[in-house]
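Reviewer 2 asked us to include a model.

Predict the structure of this chain.
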Amino acid sequence: MRALKFFLLIIFLNVRAQSEDFYFIGEKIKEEYCPESITVIPAQKLDCAPNDEDEKCRPMIKRPKCNGAGKFYSKFRVVKVLKGKFDDDTVEFYSIYCSEFGYNEPLNTKYMVIGLSKDKKVGWYQHYIEKIHEKGNNWILPYKKNYPFINYKTQDFLTKLKPSERIRINTKEVYRETSTFSEYPEPYYKQKKDIATAQYGFVFQK
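Predicted model (structure tokens):
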């Protein structure tokens, strides 16, 4: 019985944690850079001889993980919730674009898909970002097999794109920006040299 209660508790906490995540199409209102600087922590021991090799006699220097490290404070208008629940019109959160792979700038675009998680200490923080395309009265994402906010069992919102809605992707630029090889399978794409043109995409009405 105790093991069953523990198992149910784990399920409850997992479901609750997932419910704290949400994905949305957002309109950028404000974005401010908060740089991370070198931090010097004084030595723990102050009565050391000049050549003392004890590590406690030397100050510790904490350096940023990569050049340009820091975080962004962002404020977005919630245009459309794609997964999860959020009742307010705007949301404020922090984003970190520095990792072991180096520094990446945030997307230089007004609209994008954002994935947020909530932490009790820091509030909302970003864990996902994706460029979205504005075509007439629709928002369009070119086909990809692993969007975390899409139900692939029902294929909701998957549509064959009209010629005016098709999105051209420069595969060389994508690789240069992400350092990963993306897939452009048929019939979802038609590819000619370095250009892949999306024939199918996930379409959301404004």
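Residues 132-206 form one domain. The longest strand covers residues 22-35. We have added this to the supplementary material.
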